[in-house]
Amino acid sequence: xxxxxxxxxxxxxxxxxxxxxxxxxxxxxxxxxxxxxxxxxxxxxxxxxxxxxxxxxxxxxxxxxxxxxxxxxxxxxxxxxxxxxxxxxxxxxxxxxxxxxxxxxxxxxxxxxxxxxxxxxxxxxxxxxxxxxxxxxxxxxxxxxxxxxxxxxxxxxxxxxxxxxxxxxxxxxxxxxxxxxxxxxxxxxxxxxxxxxxxxxxxxxxxxxxxxxxxxxxxxxxxxxxxxxxxxxxxxxxxxxxxxxxxxxxxxxxxxxxxxxxxxxxxxxxxxxxxxxxxxxxxxxxxxxxxxxxxxxxxxxxxxxxxxxxxxxxxxxxxxxxxxxxxxxxxxxxxxxxxxxxxx
Length: 344
What we know:
The mean pLDDT is 96. Helix 1 runs antiparallel to helix 5 (106-125) and helix 12 runs parallel beside helix 14. This protein has 14 helices and 8 strands. The protein has helices at 3-17, 33-42, 56-59, 62-65, 106-125, 142-148, 195-199, 217-222, 245-248, 273-277, 281-287, 297-311, 318-322, 330-343; strands at 21-25, 71-78, 96-97, 131-134, 153-154, 160-161, 169-176, 239-241. The chain is an alpha+beta fold. Among the domains are: 3-81 and 101-176, no CATH class; 272-344, no CATH class. It has a 4-stranded antiparallel sheet with strand order 1-2-7-4, with helices on both faces. A two-stranded parallel ribbon has the order 3-8. Strand 5 (153-154) and strand 6 (160-161) form a beta hairpin.
């Protein structure tokens, strides 16, 4: 079978599997990724994400990660919200939880689809070929690869944007030894727009197309261990897991496609802060089973909830915070004391 014919059939099969877009690039198509990564690390903008400084030779080059690969197939899967994710920010007694974490864990859903598509590809290509699939769990820089594959471009908020999908989509990658025709890379189409930069509550973007994770609410509520800088706590508002502000404000979302995967339907919503603060480890694990939220653990989660309680300006929540001032976890106890002080 000709490689062009195989690519066309692969695109059709990807759509049948539920992917909204597909693009292909060479493994060495992102030479700018490695120096940008090194600059990011040298400036310390990765914060406590020490894993980013490990295996940088693989992270900076897909060709180094798997030298036998001849093509990188990048795929996009929409998780577009049906409602405005910023609306919950006007309800200080409730928790704002990022859209991507409202349903089932996307790692599982996307990887399952990638594996099915990869097996189909191998069946068509015949013996002697191989694949590897990745979903945000390996030293792979998906966003530069996706731009090189023509799926979209990294916007000023550093997330991937697409003229056809907006920015509400997950990325998955299939590395393969099959030499498939490559797509033309996409270029930035943000123009003079600065909506994503202007809306950021913590000013986490030092410049367009640059992110300082140490100030990003998604990093602070998910990756950061221990107490959060007291100067940043008031800026978190009621965001207890992730932040969607820069994504939600992007005008390219007028082209976003609806999510078709039932697993992305919201099942968490915007729970009461008082209820979430009382979760012990067992209750936390049971409530968030199958959710990406589960991986941060009860202590970091309740720490975030207490920051939201402190920001609520609701004296009725003060007893909730008081009850956790002697929590065994130092960060939780610290957050509880901070919240009590804010509500006094």
